[in-house]
Amino acid sequence: SQTIHQWPATLVQPVGSPLSLECTVEGTSNPNLYWYRQAAGRGLQLLFYSVGIGQISSEVPQNLSASRPQDRQFILSSKKLLLSDSGFYLCAWSVEVALNEQYFGPGTRLTVT
Amino acid sequence: GENVEQHPSTLSVQEGDSAVIKCTYSDSASNYFPWYKQELGKRPQLIIDIRSNVGEKKDQRIAVTLNKTAKHFSLHITETQPEDSAVYFCAARELTGGGNKLTFGTGTQLKVEL
Fold this sequence. Notes:
heterodimer; A: mainly beta; seven-stranded mixed sheet; four-stranded antiparallel sheet; globular; B: mainly beta; five-stranded antiparallel sheet
């Protein structure tokens, strides 16, 4: 069965520091991968999605970036964090476009101080 | 792009009553509509979904209906229980741009009271 991992689970970082969040999927090949952010008490905002290695689509302008160095690895990065980057970051995957179902990882709770 | 509106933002029901959450979407080409349940501090979990070639789908106490003409879909929970308390999100699959993108509603906080 498929499993999705995210780490770290929680992170506290000062403003201006760099960020690297990692997401990996097991048990499937060539998944579509997604990064979402959820601010406290708010909905899900799609940040990036990827349909393959090296293929990244950005949904909103921001100081975050994403990379997909391997088929089942998706990384979210920032060179300098802002206070507004605080939130719950969720990675998600789907197998194929036709199947549609999208499943979320356990998330990383980021607090920028 | 797709726009999904969800109502109500909060819903309080008595245990055993039914709960209904409604969503509307803007892109008539959207063809897939999932519902997610998110408990406090946890990841959203897919609880039911419906595709555009179906008008209704049921799974035990939960059901989803879809009206393509009106571009709205609804989640129905019957015989609510305290463990149904959570935030529920609807979503619509956006066909343009590829990548199986979902546009989410803003969520409904459901509280089931004893």
